[in-house]
Fold this protein.
Amino acid sequence: MDGDVSCIGSVRVVAMSLPRRAMSDMGLAVCCLMCDAPDDAGSPRCKGCISKHGKVRERLARGDDAVSRWGQELLAMMANPQRYDHDDVHGPVLQGYVRLLSTHEGPRVAPTQDEIDSLFAAAKARPKGSLIRDMANRNPWRNAPPSARVARAMSDDMHEIEGVDVGKRTVPSREIEGVDRSDRVGEDAVLTDRVAANVATQDVPEDLKDVLVDKLMAKSKAKRDKLSDAMEGLDDLLDD
């Protein structure tokens, strides 16, 4: 095609030359398939064509004007004609390019059952790794901790963070009334204590069971009240 990118405008009937690797790398294999030159690799005509096409591609890649963008679009169509064969202007030509490339690649042979079985066997034989475990195995101290000298050196390289603003506790502008949760079975502490006490004393004789249940419930309530007082004290400390 003598280095002329205008070969997108027509499709030749005679296709004699096989694609050269340099032309295929530039996405211009179809130019070789449409060339009427003898199929002699390394001929002066092939070298001149490859050189001119390479210079044209470089020139279009550097340009940002309308002509360069148009040339880049044509080169993209030639490199992947199957993506643009619906184009209103170049569609019929690109469909011819697709047929030429498909004929050159030859018919696709369906894989045999043995090949499919081999692929499944190879996939099954591959070790099933774990990303977390693989990352952990990269730890140089996975088998033994670092020495004191190494640990000290690592700590010296760490920068202390100062002046961190942890925020301020929000103080409500008015007192928030407590919520009555007595009708919520899942949050009834007394009922929960009774159930727990009955479970704990299920093997105790009946004449002692009631006494032990009351004692366990009182103990649970005292523990809960103590925790509540501690939380209130913490709230007061935070308020101050």
User: Anything to note?
Assistant: The chain is about 55% helix and 0% strand.
